[in-house]
Amino acid sequence: MKKILLTLCMLPFLIWVQGCAPATYKIEGYTASYMNPDIPVPTNAKLIENIAYSDHPTLKEGVKYELKHIGGEQGLYPPMDYFKKLADTGWVELEEERLGHVHFLKKDTTVIAIQIQENTFQITEMVKGAME
User: Fold this and answer.
1) Interatomic CA distance for residues 76 and 17, integer angstroms
2) Gyration radius (Cα) of the chain, Å
3) How buried is 17 (Cβ within 10 angstroms: 0-12 exposed, 13-18 middle, 19+ buried)?
4) How many CB atoms lie within 10 A of CB 27?
């Protein structure tokens, strides 16, 4: 009888814990970014904004995509499989330059910043020489 009572008491807690599990994103493959064909982006990410920085001294242009849960809860969990894909295509993360949600990557002479949020990510190309 004690086991049954204990089980009934624990059931609401277990249901609550299961409901609190973090939602995850899904990447269905990759395609070229609208901004730069050398930058892969998930094919199921939706372009929501093109950004021009005509007056900014270090930022060239950017794009913002929506992909549910890409950064985990509050953007705290960067999508490691996406960063692996970037590395596989030649992008090297400049880990010493990271600023919270913003990751800087370099390929040849191009430097990009990728800002990861909970449901969006933004890719910004830096002006040549901006990170030197």
Assistant:
1) 20
2) 20
3) exposed
4) 17
Q: Where are the alpha helices (DSSP H) in 1-132?
A: 2-19, 80-88
Please write the tens of the pLDDT for every residue from 62-108. Answer: 999 999 999 988 777 889 999 999 999 999 999 999 998 899 999 99
- d(CA 80, CA 91) in angstroms, rounded, equals 14
What would the two tokens of residue 74 be?
Answer: 């509050």
- pTM here? 0.79
In single-letter form, the type of residue at position 129 comes to G
Tokens at residue 40, please?
């892969």
Residue 47 structure tokens? 């372009």
Residues, the chain: 132
Q: Roughly how many angstroms between the first and final C-alpha of the chain, as a whole number?
A: 71
CA–CA dist 49, 109 (Å, integer): 25
Residues 38, 85 contacting (CB under 8 angstroms): no
99: tokens are 């600023």
Nearby residues of 80 by Cβ (< 8 Å), 6 or more positions away? none
Structure tokens at 118: 């909970």
